[in-house]
């Protein structure tokens, strides 16, 4: 059974230079913090200069539960690599992984499942 896995990687920018801050603020519309999109390549969201934090949202498929730790580690590496490629210093990186097959269905989901 294929499982949909969502990984949310969070962290903080650490001592951005003024040019880096300006670059990120200029691109902020592409990284709307209110967007909760999960993508295979990762969706980056932030709200600079209000908050120094960022979130990357990744989605992947797993056949076995044993694959989930590797998916989580891969998402963390992708987020760190994206930042490093652009020279953005970061700190306090954490992640949260959700296997959607284990999320309880709400009323709407139960109704859909009965169809």
General description of the model:
By secondary structure, the protein is of the alpha+beta class. The chain has one domain (3-114): Alpha-Beta Plaits. The protein has three helices and four strands. It has helices spanning 18-26, 68-86, 107-114; strands at residues 3-13, 43-46, 53-62, 90-99. It has a four-stranded antiparallel sheet with strand order 2-3-1-4, with helices on one face. The longest helix has 19 residues, at 68-86. The model has no long low-confidence stretch (mean pLDDT 90).
Radius of gyration based on Cα positions = 16 Å
Largest beta-sheet characterization: 4 strands, antiparallel
- What is the CATH domain class? Alpha Beta
Total domain count: 1
Low-confidence stretches: none
Based on the structure given, which CATH architecture is correct? 2-Layer Sandwich
Which geometry do the CA atoms define? elongated
Q: DSSP strand (E) fraction?
A: 25-35%
Q: Helix and strand succession?
A: EHEEHEH
Structure summary, number of beta strands: 4
Number of helices: 3
Mean pLDDT: 90
The assembly state of the depicted protein chains is: single chain
- Cα(first) to Cα(last) distance is 20 Å
SS-based class: alpha+beta
């Amino acid at each position: 059974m294929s499982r949909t896995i969502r990984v949310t990687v969070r962290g903080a920018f650490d001592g951005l230079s003024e040019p880096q801050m300006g670059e990120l603020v200029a691109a902020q519309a592409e990284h709307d913090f209110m967007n909760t999109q999960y993508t295979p390549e990762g969706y980056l969201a932030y709200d600079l200069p209000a908050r120094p934090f960022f979130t990357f949202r990744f989605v992947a498929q797993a056949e076995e539960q044993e694959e989930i730790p590797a998916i989580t580690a891969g998402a963390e590496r992708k987020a760190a690599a994206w930042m490093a490629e652009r020279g953005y210093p970061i700190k306090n990186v954490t992640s949260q992984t959700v296997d959607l097959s284990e999320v309880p269905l709400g009323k709407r989901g139960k109704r859909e499942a009965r169809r």
